[in-house]
Structure formats: structure tokens, C-alpha cells
Amino acid sequence: MAFSILEINASNELLPNITLGFKMFDSCYNEVRSLMGATWILSGKKKGVSNFKCDKDHMPLAIVGDMPSKASMPLARILGLTRYPQISYASGLPLLSDKIQFPSFLRTTYNLDNEWFAIAQLVKYFNWTWVGMICSDNELSISGAQLLTRQIETNGGYIAFQETLPIPSTMESIYSIIDVIKKSSATVIILFCTIESLVPLVEQISFLNITDKVWVGISSWSITSDFPRVDILTTLNGSLGIAPKSGKIPGFKEFLYSIHPSIFPNDPYMKTFWENAFHCVWPGNDAYNNTSPALLKNGTVWCTGKERLDSIDPIIYDVYNFKYTYNLHNAVFAVAHALHQMKNCVPGKGPFKNGSCAEVLNHQSWQLLHYIKKVVFNNTAGERIYFDENGDGPIAIDILNWQLFPNGSNRYVHIGSFDASAPKGQELNIWLNRILWNGQNTHVPVSVCSDPCPKGYRRAALQGQKICCFDCLPCSEGEILNPNDVSECLKCPEDKWPDSRKEKCLPKIIQFLSYEEALGSALATISVLFCLLTFSVFCLFIVKQETPIVKANNRELSYLLLISLMFGFLCPLVFIGRPNLITCMIRQVLFAVIFSLCVSALLAKTITVILIFSATNPDSKLKKLVGLKIPVYIVPVCTMIQIILCIIWLTQAAPFAEFNMAAEKGKIVIDCNEGSRVLFACVLGYMGLLATISLSVAFLARKLPDTFNETKFITFSMLVFASVWVTFIPAYLSTKGKETVAVEIFAILSSSAGFLVCIFFPKCYIILLHPELNSKQYITGRSARKQGI
């Protein structure tokens, strides 16, 4: 106030030739004393007289103050009766914007509704969706808490708890609130409390060492001045605060460092301030005049007046951060600019009746109020100052972070600002790198009811709880989390499958048994090697075709069987590779026809053995069938029946390639649909019938004399064939995708190898290793010996 008046009086541009003065009254943060001070100022008497002006020549033009809203409000009701200008520099109660109730009240600070909005934006910025709230039991705190609650919930957050702190607070209520704080999962707690009710609560919180919370305070209290104890400062370390914008007052720092009791000899506070600042006593202090110097030996010294104010710690004597000081400076200058405009009014162009003007040295209070409401000016820092239609000043809010350092130093750090005039969504500006959370520059604290669900999990609401409290349930197979609604999962299209995090649907992997993979190439190699081995046996039989072991039991059927086995070993090559219409149509047909030919040849060889034995046995009833050459017809007839069945199958419901989406999870298996399952079963059933007949006939003929007898080997081969295909059925049904094809290929190779090994390897063994046994005499002799036995 003093600095502002001195600046105005020293200005040649603002109110030249007019000197301003001021009166000051300390309301002691009390509405009753505030009213007493107003009565004193308005009546001109220390003991105020209502409705009387006892000193009209020294009446103040306007009242600047008070600081707390609870003191400004009754004062504004009285001053409003006579439209007496009142400009507060700190009262933010939203109700004071009501110009019907408070017509002459203005303020250079903002309406606290904007502060609630700033806190809500702050909570949203840090993604705090679950916060606690403590408010004082008064109108301002309760109404502010209600507004903030609505704003937080609009932004998607929720209030974990809201506790009311009585005024004055009781230990019972304090312990009850602390118990709620300790049990709550909310990390962030917003304090809507007046300082007198908050101090005992914070003291108990500090005593119980509750340091895992982040406190967010409003502008009605300041940590540095209201909580001087180190343990409390430690508890509040990392807290965030809302405060009016810290403005610049050019020259004020130098002014504060230049003040001295000699410059302001009549200032009742100056010497007291000096004594407290430098821990000294003025010689003229009555309390020490009659004491001996010994009383000062406790460290207190006499003040010399040479002490330097710039040696005081800025934390104690802050000359850098001006908040309410800045608003008070603007309030004084607003009155001065209004008076200046009144002084420069041109008669006939004035704002009052018939264009009249008011006299600056003799005007009515309502006339000055008119000019103050309309005033617009740039202050000494160059910032634009004005009052809106509700008498509120520009909205400028600082976001502060309270930081306490290991060396004992502490400070408020400006970490952001809120500008209501900025475009929507850009009002809040935060510098994260400046924030220290609980003394550490760590990640932003999390304050949620339930931790976010992992990828691929959806939210499941808990009955009776807020929507931000939930369980996490995994999305089912084939589903991804809905990007627009985290509480539900979406099923992927049939040809797609979720990625590992279940965030998006990716095209399914196309799978088939290919030559490029190890399994396909291994089966193809085995198939070719067995085919070459069979071809080698065939060549050996051609070379040794005139030997008894080859001529025995119809060598033509042996050649046919070897040729069939060669094709049988090559048959799996049609099963490997990407299925298409042609390969699907021919692979099962080839397999069925080739194996029907093999089994028919074995049946013919078995019947040949039986007929040969019948021809040499005079008592045999089958002797008369020898001349009919039945084995010659068995192979073509049995094979032709299978070919006819295959033709019917291909013409009626031929196999085709299809994309099997359900065979394997996350994969599209390209396989062959067999078309008509009935006709396919008929083809396989016929082949099984041939195998059963051949096995039965060979089994019955297994005890015939060894000469020209292969039935034992045919029996073994048919047992191998039957065993392979009987075990093939459960293996085929229990596999999926390309493994199913691999199982069928393995069955084809195994059964073909069984024929080759059981029937031809014994003969190859005699031909290659024991040629002496490959003679008609030896075979005949051996036969004769056995018959003699």
C-alpha cells in the first residue's frame, strides 16, 4: 500500500498535483474486527458512530480489502448500501460476484469458481481418477467442494471420500478423518479448508507419519507461513497448490530492501519488524530501558540501524514472489486511474446526467464507483488490468509445488499456470520436469481405485462401487479389447486373429504341409528314397527273373506289386504342398486305387499259392479250379470296382480345397474337403474289405508246404497293413491342420514299407546273400524232405 501510494504521488502522468494518502486497519482475519475497522474509517472516530461522518474532510475515497471472504462479505453488504467502492485483493468467494447483493464490491483477484475448475483440470491432467476431499464446515468450502466434485466427475474422475472438518475442529473429528485417509486407496487428497481448522489436522497427520499422500491445497492458505514446523513441512513435501498469479512490481524489491525505521518513524510496525528480523532490541524500547546489559547475553543485541535487509533469508523476507501483494498494488492503481479519469472529465461529455462530471476533490462515492467499474489500464509491469461485469479481475492462476531439500532449505516452485482466456483444452500449462514428488523427481503418483487392466483384459464393474472400481477379466479367445469401450471385447472376423496383446485383429497365418518346412521335406525325402529302394528291388527281380525264387508264386504279380508300391511311395508327394482343386481330387483317388491294386495283387498271389497246392494234391476239392486262371481276373476286377467307386465319387461330390478356420487357433488351414463323406467312406470301406479278405485267405493258407508258399509273408504284410490303418484312425481324428496330412502320409509310407519288407526282403536276402538257396533242386529237396517228415 505504501509503495503504491508513493509511486502514484511521484508520477507526473497519473493524478498530477494531487497527493494521495491512506489509513490502515488490521482486521486480524476476523469479520467482527473488519466491521469495526470499516466503522472507524467511515465515521472518522476510533469508536465508530454508525451513519455519521465526523471527519468529512479526511474521508477515504475507497476501501481496499479485506483479505478473507468471510470478512469482506459483511463489509460489502454495508458499503453496498451507499455504493461505497470496495476493492478486495484476495477474497474469492463466488457469491461476491452477485452485484444485486454486493453492488459496490470489486476485486483484483478471480472468482474461486475458476480455482475449482483449475484444480479439476489439474486432476485430469495427471490422470487422477480417484481422489479424496476434505473441506471445512462453512459455506465457501462446502459449495466449492460440490462444484469441484461435479467438474471432476464430468472429466471422468470420482471422489473416493469427502470429509467435513468442523470449525473449530475436534480431536474426535480429526482422528475419524485420519482413519478414512489411511484406509482409502486414494493417493491424492484435495484440501478445501480454512487454515484455522486445517492446522490441527495436518499436525496429527505429521505425527502419524503419513507421507504417502499428495496434498492439493487452495489459495486460502500457504505452507510457508501457516506451517512453520519442520516435521509438518516434511509431511507436506511435494504438495501442489493453487495461488493467484505471481505478478511483477518493478522497483518493489529495491523498496523493500531500502525501508528503515528512520524513513518511516511513525510506522508502528517498523521497529517491531526490525527487532524480529535481526533478533535485536532498539535502545528506545521501554521493555528494556531499565534492564541491565546482562539481560541481553542470551544472544539478543542492541539494534544499530546498520543492519542490512538483503542479508535476511528470502524465505523469511520474500522480495521475489508477489501474489496478494501484486493484487493489492493493482487495486490501489485502479482507484488512482479512476480518479485520474474523473479529473480529466470534460463537462458536457461526462458519464452522468446531462453529460455532467464529478469533481475529483468533492464527489459522491457512487460516482467514483462508476469510474472504477469502467477502468482499463496497463499496470507498471505492462499487464492489462480491468474489471468484468461482475467486478472480478483477470483470471490468472499459478500452480505451485512445495519442495523441501535435504539441506533444510525449502521453497515454492512455479510448475504451471491456468489461463481461463486460453482456447478450450489449453487453459492448463504444466512443466513436469520442475515437479518433485515427495522430494524425488520420480514418476507422477498414481491415484486410481483400480489399476488399469493389462492388455487383452476388459473391465468388469464391481456391484455397488463407482465405475472406476473394477475387476479385470481376460477377453475370450478370438476377441480383442474394444478400443472405444474398455468394458467389452470384440470378436475378430473369421479370417483374423488377435495379436499377442489382443489390441488388434491380424490376418490369420495360412498353414499347410509344404516342402519348405522340415516335416514336409522329410516326408518327401523318405517317400522318394523308398520309391528308389522299391525300384532297386524291381530291377533285381528283372535281372533274376529266371531264378526259382522270382518265378515262384507268379512273378508277373510280383512285378505288378512292385510297380504299385513304387507309385504308392510316390503318392504322398501329392499330399504335400498347397492344396488346390486338382490335388484334392486326385490324391485320395490315387491312394485308394494304388492300394486296391496292391491288396488285389496280394490276394491274387495268395489264391495262386492255394491253387498251386491244390494242383499237387489229388485230394483237394479246388483242383478243378486251377484251369480257370482265377488270379488273372482278380486284380483287374477288384481294381476296376474301386475305380468305378472313385469315378462315382468324383462325379457326384468331388473333393475340393477349403479354408478351414476352426482347425487351429489363430491359423487358416488349407485342406481338402472330401466332398461326400458317404462315398469317401465307401471307397475306404471297399479297400478295407479287400484287405480283410486277403488277410483271411493268407491266414488260412499259412500252413501250406513251403514250396512256392508266400502266404506267411503275405499274412505278416497284411497284419502290418491292418495295424497301421487301425491305429491311423484315432491318430487321424486327434490331430489338426497339417499334422492330419502328415499322419496320413506316415500311414501310407508305413503300410507300403510293410508290404515291401515282409514280402520282398526275404527273397532279396536269398538272392543277394544266399544264392545257393535260389535253386530248384534245393527248394524241391527241402520240400520233399518236409513232406517225408
Automatic annotation (TrEMBL):
<keyword id="KW-0732">Signal</keyword>
<dbReference type="InterPro" id="IPR000337">
    <property type="entry name" value="GPCR_3"/>
</dbReference>
<dbReference type="InterPro" id="IPR028082">
    <property type="entry name" value="Peripla_BP_I"/>
</dbReference>
<keyword id="KW-0325">Glycoprotein</keyword>
<feature type="transmembrane region" description="Helical">
    <location>
        <begin position="558"/>
        <end position="577"/>
    </location>
</feature>
<keyword id="KW-0675">Receptor</keyword>
<keyword id="KW-1003">Cell membrane</keyword>
<dbReference type="GO" id="GO:0005886">
    <property type="term" value="C:plasma membrane"/>
</dbReference>
<feature type="transmembrane region" description="Helical">
    <location>
        <begin position="713"/>
        <end position="733"/>
    </location>
</feature>
<dbReference type="InterPro" id="IPR017978">
    <property type="entry name" value="GPCR_3_C"/>
</dbReference>
<protein>
    <submittedName>
        <fullName>Extracellular calcium-sensing receptor</fullName>
    </submittedName>
</protein>
<dbReference type="GO" id="GO:0004930">
    <property type="term" value="F:G protein-coupled receptor activity"/>
</dbReference>
<dbReference type="Pfam" id="PF01094">
    <property type="entry name" value="ANF_receptor"/>
</dbReference>
<feature type="transmembrane region" description="Helical">
    <location>
        <begin position="633"/>
        <end position="657"/>
    </location>
</feature>
<feature type="domain" description="G-protein coupled receptors family 3 profile">
    <location>
        <begin position="519"/>
        <end position="783"/>
    </location>
</feature>
<dbReference type="InterPro" id="IPR038550">
    <property type="entry name" value="GPCR_3_9-Cys_sf"/>
</dbReference>
<keyword id="KW-1133">Transmembrane helix</keyword>
<keyword id="KW-0812">Transmembrane</keyword>
<feature type="transmembrane region" description="Helical">
    <location>
        <begin position="589"/>
        <end position="613"/>
    </location>
</feature>
<feature type="transmembrane region" description="Helical">
    <location>
        <begin position="678"/>
        <end position="701"/>
    </location>
</feature>
<keyword id="KW-0297">G-protein coupled receptor</keyword>
<keyword id="KW-0807">Transducer</keyword>
<dbReference type="InterPro" id="IPR011500">
    <property type="entry name" value="GPCR_3_9-Cys_dom"/>
</dbReference>
<dbReference type="Pfam" id="PF00003">
    <property type="entry name" value="7tm_3"/>
</dbReference>
<keyword id="KW-0472">Membrane</keyword>
<dbReference type="InterPro" id="IPR017979">
    <property type="entry name" value="GPCR_3_CS"/>
</dbReference>
<feature type="transmembrane region" description="Helical">
    <location>
        <begin position="745"/>
        <end position="768"/>
    </location>
</feature>
<dbReference type="InterPro" id="IPR004073">
    <property type="entry name" value="GPCR_3_vmron_rcpt_2"/>
</dbReference>
<dbReference type="InterPro" id="IPR001828">
    <property type="entry name" value="ANF_lig-bd_rcpt"/>
</dbReference>
<dbReference type="InterPro" id="IPR000068">
    <property type="entry name" value="GPCR_3_Ca_sens_rcpt-rel"/>
</dbReference>
<dbReference type="Pfam" id="PF07562">
    <property type="entry name" value="NCD3G"/>
</dbReference>
<feature type="transmembrane region" description="Helical">
    <location>
        <begin position="518"/>
        <end position="543"/>
    </location>
</feature>
